[in-house]
Design a protein that fits this description.
The protein has 679 residues and is of the alpha+beta class. The strands form 5 sheets. Strands 1, 2, 3, 4, 5 and 6 form a 6-stranded antiparallel beta sheet that branches. A 5-stranded mixed beta sheet has the order 12-14-15-17-16. Strands 19-18-20-21-22 form a 5-stranded parallel beta sheet, sandwiched between helices. It comes from Schizothecium vesticola.
Length: 679
């Protein structure tokens, strides 16, 4: 190559652009490795990958000692200790050093030229240039029985301070001790030599024979790596990363090499991150609970007022307007419920209950409720397999929620044609059924691009500003999580007959093996009422009439601070037939009124979030006074645990806001009517 002369180049020629350092490493003709100051492999040359027969993923990002240990032949060779010592020596001297020879698993011998790179006092990186050799390991490089451990580890004792590196004999007694071990663990050499290495373990580890088990695993697999608490001489503990390798000479096991690092700072950082995460989850949960309360409280007033308004004499136009208000409020309430359900599912705090499920009753009930909202050109087809069990054990509310979501979606996207619901037993064993439920529609269908993300939270296949169909994009994601919690799966496929979709899901239900299970459930939950009807909060007309007759003789106390909610609740109670309804504006007033006249009230309807004294504390004070009047919580808090928290504070039942009139009647029946009234 002919270089240009000064005359040719001229004084104004621009300098060539600087070369990329990473590119220089990649293209190096030598097997080259770059380490971070903490001895983590950050880059290797292409030649290194070829020569060592590894991939970039095998080494980049790994700790050097762990990587080298996996490449050594035989496994557990003490050569790894020499490499560590040589690197420490090169860094300490800020000069080039060369390691002793090692042999890798592909029977190739290597030595590394260690080049520490400093910027002033700061170590930037360490470069290892590997040179291939053919000479076998010399005998002095192997720790052998009878060889002075001081001689074998003299370089380690002098140079390595950040690692505790020492040898154990075949039974686990300490045979050598370096400077790093003395600094980390606090023992002087003469204090620790000959003691068993279990002295560094806590009582819990000793109780399960962890030190002995580690040596057994090491003998079986060649090495063992562990992280956990280890103890110093002064009794303080530190979080340790420990690597133990079995050391052999001529095929004979002669001991163990042990390398310990102090990772307490990393453990502390991890603990802080976990604590911060848990705190953020608590803040999120508190925020959702507060938002639920703040939104549900005015929703309760609006929807209850609509319910009361519909009980009055209205013109057709007025009824249409009230129905629009009520429907819009129900849609908003469903959005709120979807967000809360998703939050509970995402945090893992969602649970499945175990009750009697009538699969046929649930499906027909959903069809009836959705059918009233459908366009006239759309009709329903219901196919229930004859082998479907009449009753099974599972979660009826969550099964209904999935069916309702799929059927409601089918109705939303279908303008003409049919919606077909099919249910059958997919499989069964001695204890359970797997029920397959399919919803087929002739609607607009799902584009291929959108089908992949159907069950992803907040995803809608039409996310444009001109989309016709609104929603949060959470319904199918919630349905998927619920199906999995019920031991099943959910999926989609195009309708093969015509345009449209088929959504299906499976759920596992336990078999009911005795009539006593059904009778016990009926006695606990329905008291003679139709099981599925009562579970959906729709008491029979006869029971409603019975409550209306009994209401005139009952006296209620309503504890509610919100003026609008006071008005609508009193209006709702009076529409049922209750004339004697006392009012308390806060928990303190409620306690005073109940204590003043312990036998005056047949029930207390207690709001939770009130000034001066909240519903929880008010209930506790009433119970402490020995008054056993039924207390029913009315709250806009709707997260998992809210109902249980109410019961823990002495309340007897729970009504979520917005209060549905039918559900209120159900609870009133349960606590105000006698067993005879129910029958």
């Amino acid at each position: 190559m002919q270089l240009p002369s000064p005359a040719d180049s001229g004084d104004a020629s621009p300098l060539p652009p600087p070369l990329d350092g990473n590119l220089l490493i990649d293209l190096s003709p030598l097997p080259t490795m770059v380490l971070s100051p903490s001895c983590c492999i950050t880059r290797v040359s292409n030649r290194f990958l070829d020569s060592w027969a590894v991939t970039r993923e095998d080494c980049v990002g790994q700790q050097l000692l762990s990587f080298i240990d996996r490449q050594l032949h035989p496994a557990g060779s003490a050569a790894i200790l020499y490499i560590s010592a040589t690197i420490d020596a090169a860094v300490a001297a800020r000069a080039e050093r060369t390691t002793k020879q090692i042999t890798t698993i592909n029977a190739t011998s290597w030595r590394a030229r260690v080049l520490p790179i400093f910027n002033g006092a700061e170590l930037l990186a360490t470069v290892l240039e590997w040179q291939e050799g053919s000479a076998p390991l010399i005998e002095e490089e192997i720790v052998r029985p009878g060889l002075s451990t001081d001689e074998a580890f003299r370089i380690l004792v002098q140079a390595v301070k950040d690692y505790a590196i020492f040898l154990l004999d075949t039974s686990g007694h300490i045979a050598s001790w370096n400077r790093g071990a003395e600094l980390l663990k606090g023992y002087r050499r003469e204090e620790i030599i000959g003691k068993h290495f279990s002295v560094f373990y806590g009582t819990d580890d000793l109780a399960v024979r962890k030190p002995e088990l580690e040596l057994e695993i090491c003998l079986r697999e060649g090495r063992v790596e562990d992280e956990g608490w280890r103890y110093k001489k002064d009794g303080t503990r530190f979080w340790a990363n420990v690597i133990i390798t079995a050391v052999y000479k001529d095929g004979v096991h002669v001991g163990f090499g042990k390398v310990t690092r102090d990772l307490t700072e990393r453990k502390t950082s991890e603990s802080r991150l976990i604590a911060a995460y848990e705190e953020s989850e608590k803040l999120k949960s508190d925020f959702l609970a507060n938002m639920s309360h703040e939104i549900r409280t005015p929703m309760h007033g609006m929807l209850s007022a609509c319910s009361l308004l519909l009980d009055t004499a209205l013109t057709d136009r007025q009824k249409d307007i009230v129905y629009i208000m009520d429907e819009s409020g129900q849609v908003l309430l469903q959005v709120i419920n979807d967000i809360l359900d998703y939050s509970k599912l995402a945090s893992g705090s969602f649970s499945i209950t175990s009750d009697i499920v009538g699969i046929t009753s649930v499906i027909t009930s959903v069809v009836r409720s959705v059918q009233t909202t459908m366009r006239s050109p759309v009709h329903f087809e219901l196919f229930l397999a004859p082998e479907l069990p009449k009753s099974v054990q599972g979660d009826p509310l969550r099964y209904r929620q999935i069916v309702h979501n799929l059927v409601n979606n089918a109705g939303k996207f279908t303008e003409r044609g049919h919606i077909r619901i099919q249910a059958s037993v997919q499989s069964e064993d001695e204890d359970s059924y797997v029920v397959l439920t399919e919803v087929t529609d002739t609607g607009i269908g799902i584009p291929d691009a959108g089908s992949a993300n159907l069950f992803t939270p907040f995803t809608q296949f039409d996310a444009t500003t001109t989309k016709r169909f609104k929603g949060t994009g959470l319904g199918l994601s919630i349905a998927k999580s619920l199906a999995e919690l019920m031991g099943g799966r959910i999926g989609y496929r195009p309708n093969p007959e015509r345009q449209g979709s088929i959504f299906w899901f499976t759920a596992r239900f336990k078999k009911i093996k005795s009539l006593e299970q059904i009778n016990a459930w009926k006695n606990n939950y329905s008291r003679g009422e139709d099981v599925h009807q009562l579970a959906l909060g729709s008491p029979s007309p006869e029971l409603v009439a019975e409550l209306g007759r009994a209401a005139s003789t009952k006296s209620l106390l309503l504890a509610e601070d919100n003026i609008i909610n006071q008005k609508v609740m009193i209006g709702m109670l009076r529409s049922i037939g209750f004339k004697n309804v006392a009012l308390a504006a806060n928990g303190a007033e409620a306690v005073k009124m109940v204590r003043g006249k312990p036998a005056a009230y047949d029930m207390v309807l207690m709001d939770i979030n009130m000034p001066i004294l909240d519903g929880h504390k008010a209930s506790v004070q009433i119970r402490e006074a020995g008054i056993r009047v039924p207390i029913v919580a009315m709250t806009a808090y709707a997260l998992k645990g809210d109902k249980e928290r109410c019961l823990e504070h002495g309340m007897d039942d729970y009504i979520p806001k917005p209060v549905q009139k039918q559900y209120l009647i159900k609870v009133l029946c349960q606590w105000l009517l006698t067993e005879k009234d129910y029958r």
